[in-house]
Design a protein that fits this description.
This is Transporter substrate-binding domain-containing protein. The chain is α/β, with parallel strands linked by helices and 237 residues long. The protein contains 8 helices and 10 strands. Helix content is 35%, strand content 26%. The chain starts with 20 loop residues before the first strand and ends with a helix.
């Protein structure tokens, strides 16, 4: 489905014909915005003649692998990751952004930041840093194993609201054919810029990747690619 899309990448950059270096990145399984970020990075690394492969694992497992050096880094994470995982080096500028949003079955209210959901029972996906940080200190938070598992639990009234990236949530709710029952509330909780991370053994590669991201951002290429990928995923059958 949305994993297989991306004909536009071949138009962005073709590397030289000699053998390509390979970088393997942890990718949180079944999270659509991780797919989009990964394909954006594929275009970035193609300009450096580096091939990307992805290891699809749960969020916490991804961090265990990347911080230990079992894979070469993370596709995209929040900006404070290095403080908890010092072996992971942030690549700047940001590669992408997410908009954490509130989804619900019955409740209807205007969202006014994270405090506006404090009194509700909340579902989040374990290992998703933005959701964990935003709900920290709240009394009734359930950490689920995956996005689809969280959606099914919300549908079963295991909690009152769930929090996930707006784009990812829309895709996953539609995949489960629950869009008539589960809806996002407006506006999103916030917009968070997210960054690519590489293991410290790739310290020399960090500025090279950052330079390409900056160039693609300045030219508008990165935003155009993101828009195309999001549209493809949302329109996929």
């Amino acid at each position: 489905m949305w994993r297989i899309i991306v004909a536009c990448l071949s138009l962005l950059a073709a590397g030289p014909s000699h053998a390509q270096e390979l970088i393997r990145l942890a990718r949180i399984a079944d999270i659509p915005d991780q797919y989009v970020g990964g394909e954006m990075l594929r275009a970035v690394y193609a300009k450096l003649n580096i091939k990307l492969e992805f290891e699809d694992v749960p969020g916490k497992r991804a961090l265990a692998l990347s911080s230990a050096g079992a894979v070469d880094g993370e596709i995209q994470r929040i900006g404070t990751l290095s403080s908890d995982y010092p072996t992971l080096i942030q690549v700047t500028p940001a590669i992408n952004y997410i908009e954490p949003a509130v989804f619900t079955t019955k409740l209807r209210f205007d969202v006014a930041g994270w405090n506006s959901i404090r009194e509700y029972s909340i579902g989040i996906v374990r290992g998703v840093g933005s959701s964990e940080a935003g709900t920290r200190g709240m009394a009734r938070v359930t950490a689920t194993t995956s996005l689809e598992n969280m959606i099914r639990m919300l549908d079963a009234d295991r909690f009152e609201v769930m929090v996930t990236d707006l784009f990812s949530g829309r895709v996953a709710v539609r995949k489960l054919n629950l869009q008539a029952r589960i809806v996002p509330l407006s506006p999103p909780l916030e917009r968070i810029h997210i960054y690519h991370y590489l293991h410290e053994r790739h310290r020399d590669l960090v500025p090279k990747v950052g330079k390409v991201i900056a160039q693609m951002e300045a030219s508008g290429e990165l935003a155009t690619l993101r828009e195309a990928l999001v549209k493809q995923v949302l329109s996929a059958p």
